[in-house]
Amino acid sequence: xxxxxxxxxxxxxxxxxxxxxxxxxxxxxxxxxxxxxxxxxxxxxxxxxxxxxxxxxxxxxxxxxxxxxxxxxxxxxxxxxxxxxxxxxxxxxxxxxxxxxxxxxxxxxxxxxxxxxxxxxxxxxxxxxxxxxxxxxxxxxxxxxxxxxxxxxxxxxxxxxxxxxxxxxxxxxxxxxxxxxxxxxxxxxxxxxxxxxxxxxxxxxxxxxxxxxxxxxxxxxxxxxxxxxxxxxxxxxxxxxxxxxxxxxxxxxxxxxxxxxxxxxxxxxxxxxxxxxxxxxxxxxxxxxxxxxxxxxxxxxxxxxxxxxxxxxxxxxxxxxxxxx
Length: 325
Fold this sequence. Notes:
Radius of gyration: 22 Å
Distance between the termini: 18 Å
GO molecular function: DNA binding
Strand content: 5-15%
Region (Disordered): 299-325
Order of helices and strands: HHHHHHHEHHEHEEEEHH
Structural class: alpha/beta
Low-confidence stretches: 300-325
Number of strands: 6
Largest sheet: 6 strands, mixed
Number of domains: 2
Domain HTH cro/C1-type: 19-73
Pfam family, one: HTH_31
Number of helices: 12
InterPro entries: Cro/C1-type_HTH, DUF5753, Lambda_DNA-bd_dom_sf
Helix content: 40-55%
């Protein structure tokens, strides 16, 4: 079970924001702070304030003394400092994972709400082992430049890490999760029928979780004023309102993250357009059921959910792990 509290990276960002605020309230520039404390480099303070380095409790205590932080705030920030430095203990809750997997796991921990869109893939938190394995192995082959190379053990490590992240959605303190799925992500180019069938069945089950909302965007549906989202993105809102909302933009082999207000607001507008253009949650479930029945070798929609596709949907929390089915 992955941790559900804020990750060390979020603690670092929170600490950095508070330290910068205290410095500015004290009327001090970065240069003045460095001079008074006697640090050798101004970059040390910059890294702390931007959440890019593991904070040393003694350094933070020195800054808090200089800024005249109240006792209650001082105790809170020193506690955050300890959390921010415990990366090893936090990661111990997960299988071994790549840097890219870890960056997403760090954002997902402590979330109150996650909103995701991907123009070509099923988002990682929704993928079955088979679908995830295809995506990971094919990406490894592209990166290696050898189309016939053996993938080795690394893909299985990444699949295990992705499955560990998914238990977040069925945790008692699970975040609110909304995803807009493109029809292309579930088309026949995405994998063989048996993999797609497993993925569609899992999406049907996930769609009935009380905290999960899925919207299917048909390939020919216009978005907003004929807007074309250029890339996949995710929006994260955290349980602690003082942790900044974060935007993650996912490219083919690189990712970018931002807490800048204008960028966040722009992507929130895009996500609203996507949700408005996509099918409703109930119509999406019907589409998923029918799509499963259309796959070669399928017995029909009743193999996924008992009853006709048009039956009223009761959102429920299924027992057991979805990925075991």
